[in-house]
Structure formats: C-alpha cells, structure tokens
C-alpha cells in the first residue's frame, strides 16, 4: 500500500443539459460501502463504511437528490446528479468555485448559452488503464500468491468460497479446494507436502 493511500482521492466532473456527473478516482470501493448524501443546503458528502470521508462540499446549484444514481467500478465511483434547472450552466462543481470548470460537456443538443469547445474524456479507457496497472503491479513470493488467491476468491461463486474457507482452515493451510460438493461432506484432513511432516505447535 502506498504512503498516500489514505489521502483524499482525485475527482473530475462533467455536465450536460440535464445532469452533472462526479467521478471520484477511488479503487476497489463496493457499492454497499459507499454512502452518498445531499443535505438541504446542497452539501454533497461521500463517506465509506470505514468512516473515511472522500468528498465533502456545497454544490454550485440545486439537484434532484431523489433521482441521484451511484455506480462503483474497480477504478472509480460515479455519481450522477440530475439538475433542478434544465440547461443551467454550472461554472464550477462547488458553490465556492474551488473546483475546476468542467472539461467535458456531453449533450444530444448544444448548451444554449455556451460557445465552449466540447471535449470528451474516454472514461472506459481511463478505468481499464487503472485496472490494468493494478493487475500488472510487480509482486513476488507470498505477496504474489496471496494476490492470486484473492483474485480466485473474489471471482468465485458462494459455494467455491465456502469450499476454499473450509478446506483451508480445517487442513491447517495445507489444502485449498474449490469443490464444495466434496468438501462439505467431511472434515478436510491435513496434507503436508511430500517429504514434510506437519506439526501442531498449539499448547
């Protein structure tokens, strides 16, 4: 884990005639762990289950908070906020102007009061690059093995996960099975590698 892993994550935003979309570049956040709230004075707060607040600020203008949608992917959190006023041009994301102007305007029709050049960011490409960098991170030894097991576990069905947990714990870490039909029937015996003897050091 990098030294600045607990720092407030970077974010970006864009707007259309009808919506403002905030993208927070935070990896590995599950939807169930992401809590987004908007107060009556349009303060948007994004908080994680562990208590970390990763975004907190008063929005430039009003939004239809009951129609807000939140999506979490491996590389980012995307929050779509429908505007109260259609075709209203936000000068910045936050009321105090501390956020940079939107660099992307996506709309089926041009905004009525702007002559700005439309610039589109390929968010799918950005996300794929972030995930690719994470997957290609150079690991060795136990770290590489643990990463492989985590990937197998995260991609597995509930039965496969139960088989992995039961076999690993019952065998003292010497067996890791993904076959729940077989593993559920009996206790998994300790199976040390060939030419080695398993010793229980518990007192």
UniProtKB/TrEMBL annotation:
Alphabetized InterPro entries for the sequence: CS_dom (IPR007052), HSP20-like_chaperone (IPR008978), SGS_dom (IPR007699), Sgt1-like (IPR044563)
GO-annotated molecular function: protein-folding chaperone binding
Limits of the CS domain: 6-94
Domain SGS: 112-203
Pfam families associated with the record: CS (PF04969), SGS (PF05002)
Protein name: SGS domain-containing protein
Signal sequence residues: none
Domain of life: Eukaryota
